[in-house]
Amino acid sequence: MGVPAAAVPRDVRLRQAEVRRLDAGRRGLLNGFAIRQPLPTPLGWLAHRAPMGVHKAALALLFVVEVVLPLAIFVPGPASVVFGLATAGLMLAIAATGNYGF
């Protein structure tokens, strides 16, 4: 049995953790990290390689949907429907292009 963690001074535990972390990198435990990552969806692959103008437009649209349109929830009538549809569209786009490992 080892010494209980509470009996070891904090600075010693931190040094031991750092040594273990450095040793793990030396042994190559992180080798192949990118290889084991899940593959992106086909739309995610295309979105990643889209021109910078498309990325900037998508970012601007994201801010409109997440910052400006939520104010429409307080406006009666079609404005709240536009907000709901835009939010649902954004969720679908994120699900179609995201990589969540499933």
Give me a quick take on this structure.
This protein has two domains: about 1-35, no CATH class; about 40-95. Helices cover about 60% and strands about 0% of the residues. It has helices spanning about 10-25, 40-50, 50-70, 80-95.
The helix content is 55-70%
Shape: elongated
Order of helices and strands: HHHH
Quaternary: single chain
> Strand fraction band?
under 5%
Number of strands: 0
What kind of sheet is the major sheet?
none
Structure classification: mainly alpha
What does this protein look like?
This protein has 102 residues and is mainly α. The radius of gyration is 24 Å and the shape is elongated. The model has no long low-confidence stretch (mean pLDDT 76). It has helices at residues 10-27, 42-48, 52-68, 78-97. It has 2 domains: 1-37, no CATH class; 42-97. It is 61% helix and 0% strand. The chain crosses the membrane at residues 57-75, 81-101. Pfam families: LMF1 (PF06762). Residues 36-102 form the Lipase maturation factor 1/2 N-terminal domain. InterPro entries: LMF, LMF1/2_N.
Keywords:
102 residues; mainly alpha; 61% helix; elongated
